[in-house]
Amino acid sequence: SGRWARAVAILKELEEKCATPIGKLRQVADAMTVEMHAGLASEGGSNLKMLISYVDNLPTGDETGLFYALDLGGTNFRVLRVQLGGKEGHVVKQEVEEVSIPPSLMVGSSNELFDFIAAELAKFVASEGEEFHLPAGRQRELGFTFSFPVNQTSISSGTLIKWTKGFSIDGTVGEDVVAELTKAMEGQGLDMRVSALVNDTIGTLAGGRYHDNDVVAAVILGTGTNAAYVEHAHAIPKWHGLLPKSGEMVINMEWGNFKSSHLPITEYDQALDLESLNSGEQIFEKLISGMYLGELVRRVLLKMAEEAALFGDSVPPKLEIQFILRTPVMSAMHHDTSSDLRVVGTKLKEILGISNTSLKTRKLVVEVCDIIAKRGARLAAAGILGILKKQGRDGGAARDGGDMQRTVIAMDGGLYEHYTIFSNCLETTLREMIGEEAAASIVIKLATDGSGIGASLLAASHSQYL
Ligand code: ADP
Ligand code: MG
Fold it and tell me: Cβ(74) to ligand 1 under 6 A?
């Protein structure tokens, strides 16, 4: 029928507009490398902030003692304590707790958010068992993983540049988030010092390095997306401080804010961006990360419902609700292997109130998921290639007949961890771009919640008692 033809036409157009042939991905990777240089050259030189982390030494394995970490980044926050035993003992004992953030706090006031976090942290500290040892007279120390862009002023202080990922809280931008947390901890009667303030990418990099010496970059694919990597200190023109002894500095790219004319942007992306809390910003993130993929699928399905009556004569009311289709649901539909696409049928009914869908319709829904997920995964692969190029680890040496050093990228985030089609597509694409031979020495290592351990390791190496 004409309606079906219209739905298929919308799909075809989506496919064309989202296309990411290798040539285009190379342009994206090159643009990423160019922007990295620009962001390192001067403050405000690029959409990529290329933030200096003040981490110039990554964990060695010698770290010892009891340390805490707090990870605030998306829908949940995690508190963690770890007893580090040095080279012999490694991680002697570790405990983690996850607390979901009440949505009202994500758009409330700064004090409310930090008070809530400090209260949860205080409860967690109160449950510390005898397996953990704090030497007498010492203050507990914390690594604070804060996964929003921060202008770092030292290893343990920094001001919030902007909120992202659905957070929009009055009165925090421009403030020192460590001071905010410290004030809230004092309010809870909690005697604890923040010895390291780190982005989750930095935490993941540190946690990854602790286990594997060849980790030189970290990528987050969760609610949002971001990356960090190890840079030569002398290759950071905007850094006017003393050169660190190690000669290295870890850079938090804030790659979610990457933008390029080479990115395949559709009408759906434009509308999502316009209606978002941070319009014009985080464009790369809005194409790739878990917060947005399901929402993009919803927008395509809505158009198909409106213009091609895909789900019957009227538009299903729930389909008009922003963010009702979350990425885990999209992922469940995308991975449906049953012959009648039962999961797709169930999810459409449960989440969107659409019943009695035909197999043909369900297949169309899966195709939409496929296009949106693979575009995101391929663009993420291009971003990683951009970093490898900047580091001279993209396989050029191997192609010239030289030795290829092992390169490990620590990866964290629920999107990468759980969305198998996405992660497989990312790895395949990276291999395809780098070439089989060079790709053999590049490893993507899943480091689930590595950022918590990483932050506690950095708290240890920046302890006031060293
Ligand atoms: P955060 O990024 O908030 O720190 P996580 O790394 O745990 O937290 O990532 C959570 C995000 O991962 C969710 O917002 C969601 O987008 C995505 N995600 C979680 N589970 C799945 C899943 N099964 N399939 C696809 N995406 C998922
Ligand atoms: Mg996280």
Answer: yes
